[in-house]
Write a structure and sequence with these properties.
The protein is α+β, with helices and mostly antiparallel strands. The protein has four helices and seven strands. The radius of gyration is 15 Å and the shape is globular.
């Protein structure tokens, strides 16, 4: 595949099995409706646990810039607010949506607030941290961890909060993932 291996700051060349794909998981939208992640099949996903009162909150701007830059090529940025770390996401889903839109111009999808670590973690984050490639497993440590998922639904990269959306390693991995398998036209 030509992808380098790096723990929590890059991508992996390790393969995944069907049981570790994000499809057919269903998540809750920020408005409370169910969203089947299979609707993103054929897209590259950047899944991020977010918080509005965190020192890394300015990363919303960078995430939106990534979304605007690469969305036409097949990237979807998916934000999952969580109050797991120091109570830094205290608002309701509607408060979060409004804050992100007004203060950071966020247009990428924000989902319902929920836990991303521990026994009560959302199934998506359990899968990303427990069933993905071995070198990318482990608990979410803070807000704004980033998980890169290929067009087939496999976790292929993970970056800790301190790696910004503008980082060269993240942008390079996104470009590689976008170029690996173009979606089939006309299907």
């Amino acid at each position: 595949m030509g992808i380098i291996t790096a723990l929590y700051g890059g991508v992996t060349a390790a393969g995944s099995s069907a049981e570790s794909r994000v499809y057919p998981l269903v998540v809750k939208s920020g408005r409370g409706s169910e969203v089947d992640l299979a609707q993103y099949r054929g897209k590259v996903l950047l899944i991020v646990n977010t918080a509005s009162k965190c020192g890394f909150t300015r990363q919303y701007d960078g995430l939106e810039a990534l979304y605007q830059r690469y969305n036409q090529e097949g990237l979807e940025v998916l934000g999952f607010p969580s109050n797991d770390f120091a109570g830094q996401e205290p608002g309701s889903d509607s408060d979060i949506q409004e804050f992100c839109r007004i203060n950071h111009g966020v247009t990428f999808p924000l989902f319902a607030k929920g836990p991303v670590k521990g026994e009560g973690a959302q199934p998506l984050f359990k899968l990303l941290t427990e069933r993905g490639p071995r070198d990318l497993r482990g608990a979410v440590r803070w807000n704004f961890e980033k998980f890169l998922v290929d067009r087939e639904g496999n976790l292929i990269g993970r970056w800790r909060a301190y790696v910004t959306p503008q980082s060269a390693s993240l942008n390079r991995a996104i470009r590689i993932a976008l170029s690996l398998l173009k979606p089939l036209q006309g299907l």
